[in-house]
Specification:
By secondary structure, this protein is α/β, with parallel strands linked by helices. Helix content is 44%, strand content 13%. Helix 1 links the parallel strand 1 and strand 2.
Amino acid sequence: MMSTEQHIFGGVYAATVCPLRDDFSPDDVALAAHCRAVSEVRGIRGLLVNGHAGENFSLDRQEQNKVLEVVRRTVNSEQALIVGINHESSLEAALQAKDAAARGADALMVFPPNSWALSVAPETIIAHHQLILQATELPVFLYQAPVGSGAMAYSEAVILALVELPQVVGIKEGSWEVARYEANRRLVQQSAPHVAVMASGDEHLLTSFVLGTEGSIVSLAAVIPEVVVALYEAVQSGELKAAQAAHAIVYPLARAIYGRDPASHATARLKTCLKLIGVLESDRVRPPLGKLDIDEVKALQKALDQAGR
C-alpha cells in the first residue's frame, strides 16, 4: 500500500461548506472562520473547496472564484487546496479550471455533471476531462460517484482510461459500497499505482481504510475533523481498538447525514450540524433546497451528542 508520505497529496482533507447570507450570497466572514478552524486541526492535510458540500452546482463562476480567494488567503500556505470543477459544459468547466489555477489552487477535482446520471457515452466522459486538463497544468483528482448514481459512477473501462490521462494524481473514491471500493482500488493500483485512491464513503471509512488508502476527502471532516483524523491515524498505525473507538463516533453521525433519503439534503444536514455545534450562525442553503424538518434536526442533534459534540 502506498503510504501517506509516499504521495504528495496523501492524508485527510475536509470538504468544506459555503455559508450563506440572508440574500443567499456567500458569507465571506463565516466562510473564512469555518475554513480556518478546520484547517488548524492537527492532521488535516488540506481542504476541498467548491465541492458538492460547498454547493458548487448552485454557485456561479464569480462566486466560486470569490470562495477560493477567501479560503486561499485564510488558510496556511502549507494547506493544500483542492478545488472542485463542476459544470455541464466542458468549455465552462475549463474556464473554471483556469480561474482556480490563477487563484492559488493546488489541485483540481473534476466532478461528473449531474446529467450523466441519465446516460453518457464513455468517450464523452473522457473528452470532458481532457478539455479541463488542457486548460491548466494543475494536478487533477477524479470523482468516483456512488454506485446508485448511474453513469456518474464510472465503469472499470472508464476508470482505466481516466487514470492514464496526464496530471491525474488521485481519485476521491465515493462508491459508497465497500466491495466496489476495493475493486476500484485494486484496479487502479495495478494499472496506475501513482494515482492515489482516497477512501471517501463517510459511513465506510473504517473498512475502506483497512482495505488500504492514501487518505480521505470527506465532508464529515468539516464537522468532526479530529475524529476522522484519529480514525485514519489509528488504522495507519495498526491500532485496531483505537480505530474502532473512532468509528463508533463517526458511524452514527455519518448515517444521520448521508444514510437518509433524500440524499440531496446532505449539504443541508452538514450545515445544520455546524450550526448546532456553534461553528455557523446560519444553516441556510440555496433554493430549491430548504431548511430541514424538526425530526431531521433532532436526529442530527442526537448523533452529535453521541459524538460528544
